[in-house]
Automatic annotation (TrEMBL), chain A:
<dbReference type="GO" id="GO:0055085">
    <property type="term" value="P:transmembrane transport"/>
</dbReference>
<keyword id="KW-1133">Transmembrane helix</keyword>
<dbReference type="GO" id="GO:0005886">
    <property type="term" value="C:plasma membrane"/>
</dbReference>
<feature type="domain" description="ABC transmembrane type-1">
    <location>
        <begin position="95"/>
        <end position="294"/>
    </location>
</feature>
<keyword id="KW-1003">Cell membrane</keyword>
<feature type="transmembrane region" description="Helical">
    <location>
        <begin position="275"/>
        <end position="301"/>
    </location>
</feature>
<comment type="similarity">
    <text>Belongs to the binding-protein-dependent transport system permease family.</text>
</comment>
<keyword id="KW-0472">Membrane</keyword>
<dbReference type="InterPro" id="IPR035906">
    <property type="entry name" value="MetI-like_sf"/>
</dbReference>
Automatic annotation (TrEMBL), chain B:
<dbReference type="InterPro" id="IPR039424">
    <property type="entry name" value="SBP_5"/>
</dbReference>
<feature type="region of interest" description="Disordered">
    <location>
        <begin position="155"/>
        <end position="176"/>
    </location>
</feature>
<dbReference type="GO" id="GO:1904680">
    <property type="term" value="F:peptide transmembrane transporter activity"/>
</dbReference>
<feature type="compositionally biased region" description="Basic and acidic residues">
    <location>
        <begin position="164"/>
        <end position="176"/>
    </location>
</feature>
<dbReference type="GO" id="GO:0042597">
    <property type="term" value="C:periplasmic space"/>
</dbReference>
<feature type="signal peptide">
    <location>
        <begin position="1"/>
        <end position="22"/>
    </location>
</feature>
<dbReference type="InterPro" id="IPR000914">
    <property type="entry name" value="SBP_5_dom"/>
</dbReference>
<dbReference type="GO" id="GO:0043190">
    <property type="term" value="C:ATP-binding cassette (ABC) transporter complex"/>
</dbReference>
<feature type="domain" description="Solute-binding protein family 5">
    <location>
        <begin position="92"/>
        <end position="484"/>
    </location>
</feature>
Length: 308, 564
């Protein structure tokens, strides 16, 4: 397993190099000079444009720019944005909030989604199964922004139970509703995935053997059935962690949470590539590592899977 | 009680939705603030207003967008300020601004003015700041504002082949404008290249602020935490989250701030700010989202907390006059103008949030005269067809498809589609030209294409005034070679008239000349006036007296916390 992990880590190197190069290439090749839109209807002074291009190395050939970027990345220097604010400090402010929100969302997805999936899978065709099927259908058909605005309006504006937006500190209680909104869609997916998996495995040989051995019902479900049924669910949740870490632009916008999604969104609109490139690079890393972690967890759940 | 409420609502839905509502109820313990009775703002003297992240630091000569501009106006006082009700210029830091010929101006400061670090505001602070902004190696965005001052060409050199070319701009001969002279501690003299009647009005624009000595020691650090001279002082800037300013105890103006602290809370989404406003968590926003404007919902939501006003922004459509195919001729442009049903579009698309204009100047500025565009800005499909026939008779064949361009990252799609529909209907199906709406992805790309004069079609242009005067709607836009003359319009007679207006010494006569110049635009119709922007703002129930400036910003001296 150790060798496998190292091999996988080494495989990350070309992937990271390739993706960062493509990110760099694409953002700097986008049409429209990032400094042309900065002066509204007036043209920006030439001296300003020249000075900014020089400061951010935009007058250099692409490969030189990419080399500089790699050098800075390795030395941990993320540079400053067009407004001379350190990108590292921007990330430092935004990322903890996004991580908190993402983890809470994944926990809701896992606990509620898997719970509902198991309950409905075990009693197929029963009352709970029908309730879960209908409610997940309901959630799946609602886009996130509808759920978000609805809960904000209902709980925040009409009932005054929560404040409509989250404060700068973004504490855990404040994030409960946004996390639920963020989790709602995938919670339904998780529930359905778990249900299918459970239903399928209920008929498998090893479950029949376990029941025949005289194991208690709880043990059959918790140890034998659940552990095997969770593998596809885990794959789903793992990639979910990766994509949630990149921020949830819509949810963050609705509840005014100052996370990565909003930072990236604003930087893209302003064409501030000094923020877009490092943030996108870090997101690539997070995504790759989350996937690696999921792959390693398979072995824990299913001893038949060996890493060679 | 909370859970019950949640459960009632969720009965219709099912298990998961019920879980959501119940958990939401549990989570609200910390933040509830809509209890009546005492005013929660009164204890701290703090108000919260909607904000957004500035693109540059707080150096007045380098700010040109509203996110930074709003706070900049809170913390810096200028020589002149504009009255929030009438938009008229009034002396602020200046004791007097005098001239006999509109060319040499003597500016005297009030005595006893202070910076927030305790140093006095002197004439030298003004001269130093203006020299710094004008000097091209400092690369300040506002440098061109000083082009009227004598000696500008010696301190600000242009790149001979533009920023894209290999050549570099030569180093300027000197870093001091020869037209600026410090007379004594409180007096300085400004000599212009040519007489300019509106120079006094211009002085209220933020680029003409002073900078303290502290700035020159550390310009970069200063930009993040400036030392200022306005009604409020800068406290802190948490990037992407908030900016805090506090009432300046040394502020010498006659009207003092009525609140102790203003928190400029940044929102990414206008809807979020609006939800906070409705539930009284936010005290002011000047951006009511379209969803709330629809059917005047915001007026029902807010009641007497709604503020309905005007601001100095107009919308126009400009033609690329340098392009044979899409520039058209004057009659063609007149035909297009008369084919646009401005009233219906402003009523239906903007819910009367914008008003049709009949000229090229915002109705709220000094020198505005109604009807400069004459009948050409009225909706008359029959006449539009006549003009179209005339245009064709004169030898212009319009292309089969005529685009009007906008940027997709703004909200322009709806009104441009309504406009092209209006034109197409008025022209009829057999007109041989069909107007369409086309988008470029970003504002930057649109502006890039326009300034390189490569755009194929007409394009949306909006003009937000820099200072409330008719001159600001004429010179930068329609003079030959002017900085924002996007269509490359050129008319010698108009240039001469504008020059005459610039140099007239009597303000009333000068305004009359600008109005004559405006009326001359009728001949060529280089841009089609559409409508002027209204202003929709709202306040929470905790504050009172709120006024909005003609620039669409909060007047920071007006906002006060209600007595309980």
């Amino acid at each position: 397993m150790g060798r496998y992990a190292i091999r996988r880590l080494l495989q990350l190197v070309p992937v990271v190099l390739g993706t960062t190069f493509i990110i760099n290439y694409m953002v700097w090749q986008l049409p429209g000079d990032p400094f042309a839109g900065r002066c509204g209807q007036r043209p920006c002074p030439d001296a300003y444009v020249t000075a900014m291009r020089e400061q951010f190395g935009l007058d250099q050939p692409l490969l030189v720019q990419y080399g500089n970027f790699l050098k800075n990345l390795v030395t941990g220097n993320l540079g400053v944005d067009f407004n001379s604010v350190s990108v590292a400090s921007l990330l430092g402010d935004a990322w903890p909030i996004t991580i908190r929100l993402a983890l809470m969302a994944v926990i809701f997805e896992a606990v509620i989604g898997i719970g509902a999936g198991v309950l409905s899978g075990l009693k197929r065709g029963g009352f709970i199964d029908n309730v879960v099927t209908i409610s997940t259908l309901f959630l799946l058909s609602l886009p996130i922004f509808v759920t978000g605005y609805l809960l904000q309006w209902l709980l925040g504006v009409q009932l005054g139970i929560i404040t409509p937006t989250v404060t700068d500190e973004a504490t855990v209680p404040e994030l409960i509703v946004p996390a639920l909104v963020l989790a709602s869609l995938n919670m339904a997916f998780t529930a359905r995935l778990t249900r299918t998996s459970i239903v399928e495995n209920l008929r498998s040989d090893y479950v029949r053997t376990a029941v025949a051995k005289g194991l208690s019902n709880r043990r059959v479900v918790a140890i034998h059935l659940l552990r095997n049924s969770l593998i596809p669910v885990l794959t789903f949740l793992g990639t979910e962690v990766g994509s949630l870490m990149s921020g949830a632009i819509i949810t963050e916008g609705i509840f005014n949470i100052h996370g990565i999604g909003g930072l990236l969104w604003r930087a893209i609109l302003d064409q501030d590539y000094t923020v877009v490139v490092p943030v996108a690079t870090l997101l690539v890393l997070v995504y790759l590592l989350a996937n690696l972690l999921v792959d390693l967890l398979y072995g824990v759940l299913d001893p038949r899977i060996r890493y060679e | 009680m909370r859970v019950t409420k949640g459960a009632k609502i969720a009965t219709g839905t099912a298990l998961l939705a019920l879980g959501v509502a119940a958990c939401g109820g549990g989570g609200g313990g910390g933040g509830s603030s809509s209890g009546g009775g005492d005013n929660p703002r009164a204890a701290t003297g703090t108000v919260f207003i909607r904000g957004c992240e500035p693109q540059t630091g707080f150096v007045p000569g380098n700010i040109n967008e509203t996110c930074g501009g709003t706070i900049n106006d809170f913390v810096y006082s200028k020589l002149v300020k504009y009255n929030s009700d009438t938009a008229a210029p009034e002396l602020d830091q200046a004791e007097s601004i005098e001239t006999t010929d509109n060319k040499v101006w003597t500016i005297k400061l009030k005595s006893g003015l202070k910076w927030t670090d305790g140093t006095p505001v002197t004439a030298k602070n003004y001269v130093d700041a203006w020299n710094y902004t004008a000097y091209s190696p400092n690369a300040q965005l506002g440098s061109s504002w000083f082009a009227d001052i004598k000696g500008f060409d010696k301190v600000n050199t242009e790149d001979p082949d533009g920023p894209d070319g290999p050549k570099e701009a030569p180093k300027p001969e000197t870093d001091k404008l020869s037209g600026l002279e410090v007379v004594d501690d409180l007096t300085f003299k400004v000599t212009l290249n040519n007489p300019i009647a509106v120079f006094r009005t211009k002085l209220g624009y933020s680029t003409f602020s002073a900078l303290p000595d502290a700035f020159f020691k550390d310009p970069k650090g200063f930009a993040q935490k400036p030392v200022t001279n306005g009604p409020f002082k800068f406290v802190q800037w948490d990037h992407n989250s908030q900016i805090i300013v506090e009432a300046n105890p040394d502020y010498a103006g006659p009207e003092k701030p009525k609140v102790k602290k203003i928190v400029y809370k940044m929102y990414k989404d206008d809807n979020a700010a609006y939800a906070d406003l409705v539930s009284n968590n936010l005290d002011f926003t000047e951006l009511i989202p379209p969803s709330a404007l629809a059917g005047d919902k915001w007026k029902t939501d807010l009641g007497d907390r709604a503020i309905d006003g005007q601001q100095g922004v107009i919308q126009t459509v400009t033609f690329p006059l340098y392009d044979k195919e899409f520039g058209g001729n004057a009659d063609f442009r007149k035909a297009v103008s008369m084919a646009i049903d401005r009233q219906t579009i402003t009523d239906k698309i903007f819910n009367k949030g914008r008003s049709p204009i009949n000229g090229w100047v915002s109705p709220i500025v000094e020198g505005f005269k109604d009807g400069a565009c004459g009948e050409l800005c009225t909706y008359d499909p029959a006449k539009a067809k006549e003009y179209l026939a005339k245009a064709k008779a004169a030898g212009y064949t319009p292309p089969a498809e005529f685009p009007i361009w906008s940027n997709a990252d703004g909200t322009h799609k709806e009104w441009i589609e309504a406009t092209v529909n209006s034109i197409n209907q008025a022209f009829g199906a057999d007109a041989g030209v069909k107007f369409v709406h086309k988008d470029m992805p970003t504002f930057a790309e649109l502006r890039d294409t326009i300034t390189q004069h490569k755009i194929k079609g007409a394009f949306r242009t909006g003009w937000q005034m820099d200072y409330p005067h008719i001159e600001n709607f004429m010179n930068p836009l329609y003079k030959t070679g002017a900085s924002s003359n996007d269509g490359l319009y050129s008319n010698k007679a108009l240039d001469a008239k504008l020059h005459e207006a610039d140099t007239a010494t009597d303000p009333a006569q000068s305004n009359a000349l600008y109005q004559e110049a405006e009326a001359m635009l009728q001949q060529d119709m280089p841009a089609i006036p559409l409508w002027s922007y209204g202003l929709q703002a709202g306040t929470s129930k905790w504050v009172t007296g709120v006024k909005v400036t003609p620039f669409g910003e909060l007047d920071p001296l007006s906002i006060a916390i209600k007595e309980a």
